[in-house]
Amino acid sequence: MDLDSRTEMQIRVLSESRNRTILDVLDEADGALYVEELADRIVSRDVTVVSSATYDSEIHQTCIALHHERLPKLATVDLVEYDRDANLVTPRSSAAPDVEWQDGAELADIVTHLSSSCEGDESEIGVLRGRESIIEYECRLSDEAEEELFTMYVSTALFEDECVRRARAAHGRGVTIYVGSQNEAVREVSREHLPEATVWEPQLDWLNTPTYPRIGRLVIVDRRTVVLAVLEESPSEATPPEETALVASGVDNPLVILVRELLGPRLDHLDYQSDEFRSELPFEDN
């Protein structure tokens, strides 16, 4: 699935949370705003109780950033219209990129044609369907990991024995292993079978949703290859949920960039969020 250059640029711009906030504020305003109005609404979201001098300073700094950086960048990729002379910002009703929706059957076999090293066009995003295929692909990536294997699961049903075995083998090659889950059972399995891994509890809002469809698993290998799987609600308790994954490879791939941005500093500070580290803090209950 190829993305045109305009869409890729929009995805890059929207990977920055401040730019998304700007569009959210404009959308809520349902019309044009002067830069000063936009800055005031942005600052009011971020600041709780401060002195009037501090608040005015924040608005001033935000106006400067909007005028010289944020708004020109958003205007360049057609997400807003910015009249620099009038200092007026207008949301573009056609800001959302045109997506060519395709029948899922046409995309189902994309990933089977990826090379064994998972190297290909860094603008492509593949679709992989079915839990067995996704687990097989995840295991292959674990075998190819060189530095870091980062995983997140919502349940032990997704954390297959083979995934654990491949992760353990990766650690034997010197790969750093991270396992995150809000499910205590997953963390217990990880501590038992992957004692060398950093085990942690993610706080990401998009992993908290109890409704379907929902994110089921996330795998990042060497910060350049991503598997992001979505679960569909099961028709019955006896039937496991259907699983579909987006896969992408390359440091400049839009999906890889977006996932790295969503995770933010967690990728660099996971050791400080692990169960083991927190249990050793003097103010934690052991």
Question: N-to-C terminal Cα separation, in Å?
Answer: 50 Å
Our Rg estimate from Cα atoms comes to 22 Å
CATH superfamily of the largest domain: Endonuclease Chain A
Q: What's the domain count? A: 2
List the helices and strands in order.
HHEHHEEHEHEHEHEEEEHH
| Fraction of residues in H or I helices | 40-55%
Low-confidence residue ranges: 94-120, 271-286
Shape: elongated
Total helices: the number is 10
**Given this structure, which CATH class of the largest domain is correct?**
Alpha Beta
Largest sheet at a glance?
Answer: 7 strands, mixed
Structural class by SSE content: alpha+beta
Query: Order of strands across the widest beta sheet?
Result: 4-10-9-8-5-6-7
CATH architecture descriptor text of the largest domain = 2-Layer Sandwich
Organism: Natronoglomus mannanivorans
InterPro entries: DUF7344
Protein name: ArsR family transcriptional regulator
Pfam families: DUF7344
Description:
The chain is α+β, with helices and mostly antiparallel strands. It folds into two domains: 5-91; 104-279, Endonuclease Chain A (Endonuclease, Chain A, 2-Layer Sandwich). 40% of the residues lie in helices and 17% in strands. It contains ten helices and ten strands. It has helices at residues 5-14, 17-29, 35-46, 52-76, 104-107, 131-144, 161-172, 184-193, 254-263, 275-279; strands at 33-34, 80-83, 88-91, 126-129, 148-153, 176-180, 198-200, 214-221, 225-231, 243-249. The chain has a seven-stranded mixed β-sheet with strand order 4-10-9-8-5-6-7, sandwiched between helices. Strands 1-3-2 form a three-stranded antiparallel β-sheet. Helix 3 (35-46) packs across helix 4 (52-76) and helix 6 packs parallel to helix 7 (161-172). Residues 94-120 and 271-286 have low confidence and may be disordered. Residues 12-90 form the DUF7344 domain. InterPro entries: DUF7344. This is ArsR family transcriptional regulator. It comes from Natronoglomus mannanivorans.
